[in-house]
């Protein structure tokens, strides 16, 4: 059983000022609208309705956070998690590139996304989800180039691999790795960018993605004894969780 199977809904955020006041590492899932982010989060966390997955593109319009750890087997789903036991947060970012969203809303999302990935210190790594049939759209490249200067890892997941033959998808995998390897910093050093194939439908790449996320979130490392400071942090996080937002219809049930 993977540690991320314990994931639970934590909070939903529509403005950077409402980001949770937590110190644990965050792993954010970014990608074009409809790339399959929410579906992948549900599969990786082994829970059907955790992240909202939809046939309507642009469904996830806020940053939804899920917590891993601090929820015990016998607990009711709505019981508060034990904040000092939370190990990491998973963020489902709003999909970008959805044409029918109005200009203002689009700008709002893009600013929210750009600022979050560039400025959020707790963000440990980005999982960039791209449809295997059309990787590296302009906004994917924008996302990658916003995040690259942080020096933190990006793990690309090529989704919907079931839509191509095995040969075709392996070709895209190779081309994607080559393109990621072509990024170098001012000293000519490469970036910690990796890529894999994935299909929620055919259950391809689930173990590989799980292992990668656990590694990036530091879940394989034994956790040091909680410091007194963690208690204070957890109280604040509980406050921000209860602060509410105008997002009722986007919250997973
Ligand atoms: N064939 C196939 N379809 C998939 C796969 N994963 C997701 N889908 C479908 O793709 C559509 C979009 O999936 P979502 O998970 O809602 O996509 P998202 O990236 O969260 O989209 P936004 O919330 O709009 O950003 C849904 O109809 C899914 O059923 C996959 O592995 N294979
Ligand atoms: Mg979604």
Automatic annotation (TrEMBL):
Residues 238-253 have a biased composition (Basic and acidic residues). The keyword Protein biosynthesis does not apply. GO terms for molecular function: GTP binding; metal ion binding. The keyword 4Fe-4S does not apply. Residues 23-219 form the EngB-type G domain. Its cofactor is Mg(2+). GO terms for biological process: division septum assembly. Residues 225-253 are annotated as: Disordered. Pfam families: MMR_HSR1. Keywords: Cell cycle, Cell division, GTP-binding, Magnesium, Metal-binding, Nucleotide-binding, Septation. GO terms for cellular component: cytosol. Belongs to the TRAFAC class TrmE-Era-EngA-EngB-Septin-like GTPase superfamily. EngB GTPase family. HAMAP family: GTPase_EngB (MF_00321). Necessary for normal cell division and for the maintenance of normal septation. This is Probable GTP-binding protein EngB. It comes from Pseudoduganella lurida.
């Amino acid at each position: 059983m993977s540690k991320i199977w314990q994931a639970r809904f934590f909070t939903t955020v529509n403005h950077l000022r409402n980001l949770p006041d937590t110190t644990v590492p965050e792993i954010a899932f970014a990608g074009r609208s409809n790339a399959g982010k929410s579906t992948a989060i549900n599969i990786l966390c082994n829970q059907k309705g955790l992240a909202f997955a939809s046939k309507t593109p642009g469904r996830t319009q806020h940053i939804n956070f899920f917590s891993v750890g601090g929820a015990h087997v016998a607990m009711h789903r709505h019981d508060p998690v034990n904040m000092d036991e939370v190990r990491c947060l998973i963020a489902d970012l709003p999909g970008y590139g959805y044409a029918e969203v109005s200009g203002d809303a689009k700008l709002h999302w893009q600013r929210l996304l750009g600022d979050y990935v560039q400025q959020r210190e707790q963000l440990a790594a980005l999982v960039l989800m791209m449809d295997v049939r059309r990787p590296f759209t302009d906004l994917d490249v924008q996302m990658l180039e916003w995040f690259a200067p942080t020096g933190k890892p990006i793990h690309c997941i090529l989704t919907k691999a079931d839509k191509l033959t095995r040969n075709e998808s392996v070709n895209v995998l190779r081309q994607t790795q080559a393109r990621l390897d072509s990024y170098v910093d001012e000293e000519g050093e490469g970036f910690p960018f990796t890529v894999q194939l994935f299909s929620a439908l055919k259950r391809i790449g689930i173990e590989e993605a799980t292992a990668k996320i656990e590694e990036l979130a530091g879940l394989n490392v034994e956790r040091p004894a909680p410091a007194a400071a963690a208690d204070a942090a957890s109280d604040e996080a509980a406050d921000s969780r209860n602060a509410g937002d105008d997002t009722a219809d986007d919250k997973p049930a």
